[in-house]
Amino acid sequence: xxxxxxxxxxxxxxxxxxxxxxxxxxxxxxxxxxxxxxxxxxxxxxxxxxxxxxxxxxxxxxxxxxxxxxxxxxxxxxxxxxxxxxxxxxxxxxxxxxxxxxxxxxxxxxxxxxxxxxxxxxxxxxxxxxxxxxxxxxxxxxxxxxxxxxxxxxxxxxxxxxxxxxxxxxxxxxxxxxxxxxxxxxxxxxxxxxxxxxxxxxxxxxxxxxxxxxxxxxxxxxxxxxxxxxxxxxxxxxxxxxxxxxxxxxxxxxxxxxxxxxxxxxxxxxxxxxxxxxxxxxxxxxxxxxxxxxxxxxxxxxxxxx
Length: 306
Ligand SMILES: CC(C)(COP(=O)(O)OP(=O)(O)OC[C@H]1O[C@@H](n2cnc3c(N)ncnc32)[C@H](O)[C@@H]1OP(=O)(O)O)[C@@H](O)C(=O)NCCC(=O)NCCS
Prior knowledge:
Elements (H helix, E strand, L loop, with lengths): L4 H14 L8 H8 L11 E5 L2 E10 L12 E9 L2 H17 L4 E4 L10 E2 L3 H9 L3 E12 L11 E3 L5 H11 L3 H13 L1 H4 E6 L2 E10 L20 E8 L8 H15 L4 E7 L2 H5 L4 E12 L3
Parallel strand pairs: 3-4, 10-11
Antiparallel strand pairs: 1-2, 2-3, 4-12, 5-12, 6-11, 6-12, 7-8, 8-9, 9-10
Bound molecules: coenzyme A.
């Protein structure tokens, strides 16, 4: 039902009354990032109507692990929820929790889903966090988005940092399977297979071996995930970076900083201005390159008994 285009208009209306303007949904975001990814579970998502009016809905996704041929981790995600009335919302979520537990989940997280619309609950959404706490969700670390205007940054280019070539997608897959299996591998390969790795991935090479990668996104691409989901608040020439990572054995030697600068330089070269790096705790690392905190989230998880 929620994945059906005719449900989108009502869902978007309800959502936009529930979240701050920065997180307002468009039909494109709804269809691509919330209900359109392979991890979307229409059978566990729910819509509640009263007198033919949509009064609440919850979008559930499963972990990307199984879809990517890895062992199931039995973690499910509330990719987004909205309601008219908090008591009705709590009752709806109780029902979702029961059904997700019945489907074998051992953990339900708010956000942190494949494609990651939300890394957690935006701190402004007090009613939402209140209901989650009442239902037994445990709030843990705070995570942030950071932003900068690329026009303000002096960025160096490095010879071993470059956009991937069209025939290098397999190098990316191998690197991710080795260093970042699970959600990152799932999300980055989905994006690379949709938009072409050469358009959305910058690599760090050591003697022709891929030892780091940064996902970069802008309006010329088709699938918007992670920091690009809420791109409307970044203006027309928006840009997004992340995930970014280097091989464990190579960390702490300056490679990550060079990769970051090279990837930002590529976004700037393509005309990018306001740039977001989403879902991080590394404010010091990104701060060195001119990024400041733009949004704070609290992560919420519920442990479920099988
Ligand atoms: C984050 C990451 C890309 C950094 O790469 P790196 O090669 O280790 O970083 P660098 O050696 O280039 O460090 C650049 C600077 O940032 C600092 N820095 C790097 N990682 C940091 C961390 N986790 N916390 C605080 N500062 C950090 C370094 O101290 C260094 O400062 P300096 O120039 O004053 O010495 C790398 O650690 C990584 O892949 N981590 C795992 C994946 C990850 O967490 N990615 C980020 C998700 S938001």
